[in-house]
Write a structure and sequence with these properties.
Elements lengths: L1 E13 L4 H11 L3 E10 L2 E9 L6 H12 L4 E12 L6 E10 L4 H11 L3 E11 L4 E11 L5 H15 L1 E7 L6
Antiparallel strand pairs: 1-3, 1-4, 2-3, 5-7, 5-8, 6-7
Helix pairs in contact: 1-2, 3-4
Length: about 180
């Protein structure tokens, strides 16, 4: 484990060109390094979460003020949270991908994530979309997972098959070829 000074930066608002440049420009100007970043557009709304390594002594409140000044004219709200902690090693286990699709209905994410959590499967990434037409919406969800080393994937696959019938969706679980990554 290594000890680092980090802040999380969350930015959300109406999407438009220049938002990422404005955020990253302030961070680079303060000597920050972007370590983990996720950005997406959700129905026209910009959403970004960053874990940023900061120089020692950087004031997170001052950083938030500077970031807000840079992006508030673009309609973006920013929150900075400080944390100085030990960075744990990656969750040990094997990489898997789960794809879920079927008729859209409330509770799919909850039921699938609860089943995975009950089996000690870690969700590393989750993406959902509603596709199809307004008359026939189709829900899609893709999850990147880490299975604990002592868990038989067939056991989870069987439980997912039963859940899929109950939810009226299809679930496809597939091992990730580590050599490709």
């Amino acid at each position: 484990m290594r000890v680092s000074h980090h802040v999380s930066v969350t930015a959300i608002g109406t999407d438009q060109p220049g938002v990422v440049a404005a955020l990253s420009g302030v961070l680079a100007g303060r000597g920050c390094n972007l370590e983990d970043t996720e950005m997406t557009i959700l129905r026209g709304h910009f959403a970004m979460v960053l874990v940023v390594a900061t120089p020692p002594g950087l004031d997170p409140v001052g950083l938030e003020v500077e970031l807000r000044e840079a992006v508030s004219p673009l309609g973006i709200d920013v929150v900075v949270r400080s944390f100085d902690d030990e960075v744990p090693d990656a969750y040990p286990g094997s990489a898997w991908t789960l794809a879920v699709h079927g008729a859209d209905r409330p509770g799919i994410v909850h039921r699938v994530s609860r089943l995975l959590g009950d089996h000690r499967v870690n969700i590393d990434d989750l993406t959902t979309r509603v596709i199809g037409s307004e008359e026939e919406p189709v829900y899609t969800m893709v999850l990147d997972l880490t299975f604990p080393e002592d868990l038989d994937p067939a056991y989870v696959e069987d439980a997912l098959s039963r859940l899929a019938v109950d939810l009226g969706v299809d679930c496809v679980l597939q091992a990730v070829d580590e050599d490709i990554l």
